[in-house]
Amino acid sequence: MDREKARKRAEALVSRMTVEERASQLRFDAPAIERLGVPAYNWWNEALHGLARGGTATSFPQAVGLAAMFDDELLEEIAAAISTEARAKYNAYSAEGDRDIYHGLTMWSPNINIFRDPRWGRGHETYGEDPYLTARLGKAFVRGLQGDGETLRTAACAKHFAVHSGPEALRHHFNAVASGKDLEETYLPAFRALVREAKVEAVMGAYNRTNGEPCCASDMLMRKLRGEWGFEGHFVSDCWAIRDFHENHKVTSKPAESVTKALKAGCDLNCGCTYQHIMAAYEQGMITEEDITRCCVRLFTTRYLLGTLGEGGSEYDYVPYTVVECEAHLALARQAALESCVLLKNDGLLPLDPEHCGTLGVIGPNANNRTALIGNYHGTASRYVTVLEGIQDLTAGKCRVLYSEGSALGKDRVEPLAQPDDRIAEAVTVAKASDTVILVLGLDETLEGEEGDTGNSYFSGDKEDLLLPAGQRVLLERVLAVGKPTVVILMAGSSIDLSRAQEKADAILLTWYPGAGGGKEVAELLFGRVSPSGKLPVTFYYNSALSEMPDFTDYSMKGRTYRYYEGKPLYPFGYGLSYAKCEVTGLETDHESAKVRVRNTGARGTDEVVELYMRDEGSPFAAPNPILCGFQRIHLEAGEETVVQIALHPDAFTVVDDGGRRVPGSGRWTLYAGFGAPDQRTEELTGRRALSVSLSQ
Fold first, then answer.
1. Catalytic residues
2. pTM of the prediction?
3. Chain segment 258-298, per-residue pLDDT in tens
4. I want to staple 242 with a disulfide (CB 3.0 to 4.6 A). Which of 269, 274, 419, 450 is the partner?
């Protein structure tokens, strides 16, 4: 069904409703209108990396891990699997009369905010720090969720619009100030791409204000969204964000005024309870019937596009419940876990040989932690495989595995009545008794996440610094001091200062939050069943870098992310090692695409990600560092050579001036091709320099 047809059907239906009935449909928990055959519908559902909070579902790696794949084709398949499971659940549950929260077809995903500051607790919900990567992956996710059928498989939602990335503790009253340049260059490109190119059906406003206006009623943002970009879908507030207008932002004085401000700005749907005051605002003459009707028509247009109203239904009405956690979807989750893990260091210890590894000591608070598998906004899996269990299963009958928790995750002791560091003696004993140590450290959703959702109450889900919790730092030092060959595994969703491990450990593997079964794939990577191939979608900084950055509340991009950071990173954006040795041996370009010749000179096959970066060599408005403008994941067997053709994003030849206008660049550029950002630190860590060619107009 095309949008025009759906809109006309929505108009016809809404015209038969009373004003009160129309007003009731602007709540996220819209009630039934039985006399018109309209069933109740709850708009709130989550699909960040699998269906969340609605029962059993396939569990994929957390969003930042999905970004580390640099694989938009696989990401689209994953989103299609998620939306297929959503249809299956919707079909089954609605047949039982269950139309509850988290059971609908409107997915409040993806989160395409830019991970601009490494302290932000929700950064692991995003696709990282780069606008181009975020846009490309976000479009793939939207395509997968919405499908290409006669009706929408599900409706995707781009959030949080816009200029939103912490601090979590301040989000309900904070004013994010962004220059025109930073808006156009950093904060808005992904939203524009999802609206214009992926035709995302919904956009969610952020909690905070941007340049003085609350995002859920911002004239500036709405002009861009519905005016410049031509958005035709519906707009939803973040949850209880409209209440913040009068309670926290103080831009209104009472709920009826907040309703008026939001409704007239174009916020169609309220996640929260403030729109319960719509009729009060209407009766006081603050809003008109036309204001209510306009929003109601947009919402019912989406419901018709989903095929959930009227005759005809949807081609997805017969998706069976048995697709939930089916083998095909689990296979996608396994592939995603393998592609997402990033090998940060390897002095030759990896891959391990299960036939000759003797005694393995598996140590650390995340070694057997199910919570560290799943990130936040997660569903329930029917089976979980921790890193410890994955190692035990793979090495069964081949070597001895000893285990010690080593420390609590965030506290200074495991047992409340014990002395601090009460598992250190056990950890050291296990290390001494082992031939090789696998030390599994990091965070989970209780230490980084959304305000109100984590156990990290002091910082509302954000991080105070980039260090491991104190107890884990003690554990790391004591285990490294034993002197055994040691692999450090980091399970986290953001930048952590691993400089001590980089200095002393033999290998470091970053697994993010790899999904419910991710321990199996982590073990396969450790033991060489598959070569690691993930790349960092965020910069990993030394903790000292925080003193060089603008304050967390400063939304200027100066000194932030790989594009503007001029210090030395611990691990650069785009970086990741493998067990093979691949080289870029040739580079040609015609300004629209680049042909990159790549050879695997190693002894085993691997996936690799060919990355293209562009630097404007003459414009005063250019970022100081080369910027990602294209990438392609490939597979090369040992000794194989291939030529990859990669399109160059047109924005690579433009810059954004101080007034926020995207204009042609200087006419002189350098294009780089390699397996990471073309910087000195990448060369130090990989021993390889990116190839480059000069371009001119």
1. 238
2. 0.97
3. 999 999 999 999 999 999 999 999 999 999 999 999 999 99
4. 274
